[in-house]
Amino acid sequence: MRAADDARWLAELVSAHEGGMLRYATGIVGAALAPDLVQETFLRLCRQERAAVEGHAVPWLFRVLRNQCWTALRRQGRATTDSMLEGVASHAADPERQLEGRQGADVALRAMAELPRRQGEAVHLKLCAGLSYQEIAVVMDTSTGNVGALLHQGLQRVRAAVVAAQASRVHGDAEAEAAAVAAGEGGA
Amino acid sequence: MATSEREEREAEARQVVDRLLGELDPGAEPALQERLSADLALKALDAEMSDTLALLREGLDGLPQPERSEAQQAALQAAIEGDGAPVPAPPTWWARWEAALREHRRRLQVAIGLLGGVAAGAMALLVWLSEPPQVANLAPTMLEEATAAEPAEVPEAEHGLGAAPEPRYAPPEPQDAPSAAPARRPQHPQLRRERRSELDDLLNGAVGSSGSRPPRRPAPSASPRPAPRQRPRASEELFANPYAHDGSGASRPARSPAPATAAHPTMPTQEAAPSSYGSARSLLPTRHYGFVDTRHQPVSSFAADTDTASYARLRDRLSDGLLPDPGTLRVEELINYFDYDYVPPAGPHPVAVHTEVASAPWNPRHRLLRIGIKARAAAEIGPRNLVLVVDTSGSMRSDDRLPLLKQSLLQLVDGLRSRDRVAVVAYAEQATVVLPPTSGSERRVIRDAISRLSADGMTNGSDALQLAYQLAEQGLMPGANNRVLLATDGAFNAGETSLSALRALITRLAGSGVYLSVLGFGHEAGGDATLEELADRGNGNYAFIDSPHEAHRVLVRETSDRLVTVARDVKFQVAFDPERVASYRRVGYENRAMANADFADDRKDGGELGAGEDVTVFYELELREGPAPGATGAHVGSVRVRYTHPGGTTGRQLDVSAIDRGGAWEEASRDFRFAAAVAELGLLQRRSTGIPLASHGRVIEMAAGALGPDRDGYRAQFVDLVRLSRGLLR
User: What pTM was computed for the model?
Assistant: First the structure.
């Protein structure tokens, strides 16, 4: 039996972060697996002492979820050393989406999925889950300053890819499209 | 030294990112604001980064949104309540809250959204009313500020998150929405667009009309945030390369000269907008107006452009009581809408080049170089071989499209002569030859064919163009004006939809000696850039037709001479004297920039110049400190104009010196003053920076003082238009 106050605390955490966590996990492992991992994370939360988590519940949730996602990827043999945003990558590469006239967003997503792993992770935690630098630092086990640097480097690369892709669209040049990808990889 | 400067830049760039992500130390905010208003490159980065973030968010919003299954929810609920033991009854208010929330989640979200919308509208109205427009040109800025400043308060109201000072964590009330992400995305472009439309509504008297808000996405796991914005050509609009206009791309806009604007009371955009970050719209125009340091890049090259569509669109918007979208305004098209009395060429060249330098009306510290070229008038108008390609797709049905087009074409028919030839191709799903090539003497046949056109179906423009080019090629008259006239609203929604295929087609067919003119109809901005590009590929002109008056102007008055090309591939190159000129910016022609190396390359496409046409270009110059120019004036740069004869292959070049005699704009020629007034309006409408003295009142004053003979009344109409726009802004 759990005290009413504690149950409420848990329920609030669930309702407040479920959406962000689902988005986050979807970006890594895809939509099929995300609910299970989020569920497992919440169940683990329920097994924790409140005092052990309270005060840093958000980074705790995302850190547990991140590790689960990572494990799941590895189990599927999809984990590579250079990226973990498999969900984002496969979404952006979905040929059906190419027809929707959202190239700008897709270029950005592709560039994001191709970022070096740490940069991509920081961007993902920031934009998908809306965590603060401080929270991201806890999740990624690094300093707040380093989070800022990772985000900056990552976003600069995405920006370079987006701008280059735009230039290629304006000039209708397939080669520039390739250059856009190259700029995204080597830029910043 | 250099290293530390680079580090400083890096640090600033990081701060820009921090700020866009809401992580900038508030203490650092004012200093960064100052840097942003002083450094155009940094500002460009800010805008691009903001756009990138918006795109990433849009993209991430598009990811699938799974939910935990009901079984999972029940299992978790049991776990939360603890081990299946009897659950202590939660406080009744909480139970009711939660039950109600679960049951009416969607309705609540909509209601919250609507409430937020009303609140946002009210807020915008308050912002609007609380700042009386002191000067006419404050108003567009306020519009931007009202949209840009909102992240401070409105999004919270919008999302129903209350006044939580730190919205990233869970709000005290349980909500099924993830509070984190939505509360942090005040800069989502759709929000801005909505508010913009609300503001438009306000302007039009529809206060508080929440019904005009786009529906919210009902996805249950999504927070109440608007659907991802559909951006038909956001890419083109938002991601114009800020450095594109310096040609080689190698140089960067120099750090702005001592910002005259920073302390100027009539220039509130920079300082007053507390969080213009994320407002791509407010930043977009300024990116195009970076000054280029002559030490890095003394040479500026671009292709001539005689299109005038932007002016017609501006007039269209203002006549409807709406403010124009700054992103769709091309200043050069405003300037070139008007005729200027430049002296026509007397020598062997078909074009004459004139330069004039005076003070910049909008910034007395700067000089304004005007380059005007005038094409030879046609001695006699040769025969015309015209193929009209008419879009009869469903979207052309409205009154401002096909009916207007038919009316325009009938006017054109009146001017036909027996040696002219006309064919008509209509296209919807399929292209059909409505009228085979027919002599201009058979006007009734031609009229009947045009009158029969009606709109339905999808659009397949490329087939029609191919067919039209075949017809034009079959009837190719050497020495005649062989031209395809494409009339469309730009919605190519079937067949070879991809623009690149169309581009390739037009470029290929342009090689056969047939030119392409595009007439744009309808309000949608979406087709605008597309149409312009198609015309460019086809060595032709692009005009936007918004009224019978404009139709007459383009089709009747101008087809007669304008359609006779006297110079092909007209390009400009200006080599500034770095000793005299510290930095410069070109006013307009953003999408006409070319690499300096391409200027002398005759294979590279430039602009076409019809008989009697003129082109006007302004460069705004920041001079170095030095003695005032003497009586002979000071050489500020060399202007080169390159062109090819319509039948020739080798380019020819004219060189002219630009001499600054130190005069003020008030003493400049009438055409200089009028064109500068038009340019100033364009800069105002595009929310350009660095125009401390610009105002609608002064535009009116300048233009009204430079009407001249004004045979067609266009200049007087311009003055009326600016009065109208000033009235709108009040």
Answer: 0.42
